[in-house]
Amino acid sequence: MIVRKILVPVSGRLDPDDPEDLDAPALKAALAVAARHDAHVEVLCVTAEPARPGDEWSAWLPGYGADELIRWIEEENEERRRRAKATFDRQIAALEVQPQLTDDPARGFSVRFTEEVGDIPGAVGAAGRLSDLVVLAGAGHSWESPFRPLLQASLRRSACPVLVTPPQVSPGFATRVALAWNDTVEAARAVAASLELLKAAEKVLVICSRESETAGLQAEPLVEYLAWHGIEAEAAELSESPRDTPAAIVERARAADCDLLVLGAFLHSRAHTLLFGSVTEFVVSEPGIPVLLVP
């Protein structure tokens, strides 16, 4: 995965229990990655287009405040756009190395803030399909509900790797990388997508888990494969049952002082959602360290 263009969907929402804007962790992480790779950050604020008087749904509310409700939605959308832009401006101003503010493709560290009104999942998916990486702040806040649609759209509609960040992330993260491996197609995609990142890491740890109680452990073949790419990796094989694997992977990564976990994203093939009970579901719900999900 060569990173030249990074997408950051922003919502402009605030956590009432946290004075910092909920978009800030994703912006910080994306800017840190972009500065390291001389990449471009595309910050996208999408707000849903509110219904207008006379639309089908408003006909159900004659005389019951339809106009007032529409006006409130418009005001809330405007406030969200204002907050998103203000957070963007603060994050840029805090950087030691200032990126180019550009509307045109350019070599080097650059950034652009764009706004759209319309279908949020559709807009995020379309932008993600023309990006190398999508960055989202994780669900470690009380605001998980607005985060999930962005994550689902990024994984399912863009087919692009998604970096999910916890509320706090070091600017120098991704130097000690844990790679979750269970010898599946999803895990193999994650390996292929992260090879360039693994080459740049100071430490790579392969955490091998079993798909079933009777499955064997397969860490060494992957360690050998990475060596063909010039990547020296250590292996850690989990003895936990598949049911306890999600927590065990995260705990092992933390114990090894890893600052990024890479894994294949398991999606429900029909519901197009994260597979309940999977490692993917667990790390998204408990983002203790940055996680790179590869669909």
TrEMBL record:
TM region(s), chain numbering = none
Q: Spell out the Pfam families in the cross-references.
A: Usp (PF00582)
Query: Which InterPro entries would you find in this protein's record?
Result: UspA (IPR006016)
Please name the Gene3D superfamilies in this protein's record.
3.40.50.12370
Look up the signal peptide feature and give its range: none
Q: What range(s) does the UspA domain occupy?
A: 222-295
Which CDD domains does the entry link to? Answer: USP-like (cd00293)
Q: Which family does it belong to?
A: Belongs to the universal stress protein A family.
Please report the name of this protein according to its UniProt entry: Nucleotide-binding universal stress protein, UspA family
The protein's organism comes out as: Tistlia consotensis USBA 355
> What lineage is this protein's organism placed in?
Bacteria, Pseudomonadati, Pseudomonadota, Alphaproteobacteria, Rhodospirillales
